Amino acid sequence: MDIFNKTRALFHLPEGMTYLDGNSLGPLPYAAQERVDAMIRDQWGELLITGWNKAGWMEQPSRVGDRVAKLIGAEAGHVVMGDTLSIKVYQALASALELNPDRKVILSDSGNFPSDLYMAEGLIRTLDRDLELRIVEPEDVEAALGDDIAVMMLTQVDYRTGRMHDMARLTALAHDAGAIAMWDLAHSAGAVPVDVAAANADFAVGCSYKYLNSGPGGPAFIYVAPRHADLVNPALSGWLGHASPFAFDLNYQPGAGIERMRVGTPPVIQLAALEAALDVWDMVDMADVRARAVELSEMFITEVESRCPELKLASPRDATQRGSQVSFTHPEGYAIMQALIAHGVIGDFRAPDILRFGITPLYVGEADIMNAVTALQNIMDGRLWDRDAYKVRSRVT
Ligand SMILES: *Cc1c(COP(=O)(O)O)cnc(C)c1O
């Protein structure tokens, strides 16, 4: 049997819904529901405070981090879970800047997710030492790697178009220029094969609620290369990153290695959901997931282009330059997406005109792709999107 029929059966997929938005929020794994139910009942309910020791809650951020490490090619013991991605971006960037104290420029690109750029702005203001955030076009990053760059901070896969940077190549170029390389893997972890160790990345961060299916608000991860792990000085020096939190010293002493990137109390319930959600990755090979995603993406692009010619491909046509999502543009993109959602096909919209579809083979197959294209064609041919109700913007798009 096709392995992806087996993995699909592990997820709750609502009746009548075609879900192409796993790049924003993964669906519910049945195992996560069961694990969370059991955790709440047997651990929170029965163990109460003793759960920190008896149920291993305190080790959970690094125990789960080790499993995420395998998905991003990180060395064991160098990834820890916690907080949200924006917080992890701040921590990694602050530490990266400290490793390159004589330089003033943070280099990023216009394909980065705004929160990463906002966190950099806030950090720059707080540090108040004339740092500059320089944002160039994605294709100009290489040329911008001059001897003034302290940190190259990039998101590998563009959240709007799926365009993918070559992590190993840009990291090597950043190092040649004397810069620290920091990667956001929000749209890479669980989407494409990643090898932070082989790429020689200095820092990496990412979230777990997209392709790793930990549920809304699931914790983020942070990786610090072993060569830096005992040198970095955490900007967010919370008690659980302390060498011995329960000594209650009045002064901060960083914990060993990646442990120092912990901040406060971990989200134990959400980590339980993630821990169960990660089991599916033990059944599949990332290379197979990638091959299947490429196959489904190619099918989607071919069908949409032939049946909905008004939609223009916004993603790279070359699959090797693309993550695990496919995007199209149309001036009425928002209304088209609302109409599509009303017809049971869930993708999302990113301003100003992008219709975005996540291709996630663990639970998306050919029938879903064909359903989505048929719905899209009906909406375009019949101008079904042209209704006031589909043009009202919701808070989350
Ligand atoms: C999804 C995403 C975020 C979201 O950050 P949160 O703090 O988890 O809300 C940040 N950066 C990138 C690149 C993302 O794709």
Automatic annotation (TrEMBL):
One GO MF term: pyridoxal phosphate binding
- Alphabetically ordered keywords of this record: Hydrolase, Pyridine nucleotide biosynthesis, Pyridoxal phosphate
Q: Which InterPro entries match?
A: Kynureninase (IPR010111), PyrdxlP-dep_Trfase (IPR015424), PyrdxlP-dep_Trfase_major (IPR015421), PyrdxlP-dep_Trfase_small (IPR015422)
UniProt superkingdom: Bacteria
Q: Which family does it belong to?
A: Belongs to the kynureninase family.
Subunit comment: Homodimer.
Cellular-component GO terms for this entry:
cytoplasm
What are its E.C. numbers? Answer: 3.7.1.3
State the name under which the record lists this protein. Answer: Kynureninase
Give the enzyme's main class according to its UniProt record, as a single word: hydrolase
- Tell me the route in metabolism or biology where this protein functions: Amino-acid degradation; L-kynurenine degradation; L-alanine and anthranilate from L-kynurenine: step 1/1; Cofactor biosynthesis; NAD(+) biosynthesis; quinolinate from L-kynurenine: step 2/3
Q: Which cofactor does it need?
A: pyridoxal 5'-phosphate
Q: Where does pyridoxal 5'-phosphate bind?
A: 85-86, 113-116, 155, 184, 187, 209, 239, 265
Q: Has the keyword Hydrolase been applied to this entry?
A: yes
Give the record's GO biological process terms.
anthranilate metabolic process; L-kynurenine catabolic process; L-tryptophan catabolic process to kynurenine; NAD+ biosynthetic process; quinolinate biosynthetic process
N6-(pyridoxal phosphate)lysine occurs at 210
Reaction it catalyzes = L-kynurenine + H2O = anthranilate + L-alanine + H(+); 3-hydroxy-L-kynurenine + H2O = 3-hydroxyanthranilate + L-alanine + H(+)
Pfam families noted in UniProt = KYNU_C
Please explain the role this protein plays, according to its UniProt record.
Catalyzes the cleavage of L-kynurenine (L-Kyn) and L-3-hydroxykynurenine (L-3OHKyn) into anthranilic acid (AA) and 3-hydroxyanthranilic acid (3-OHAA), respectively.
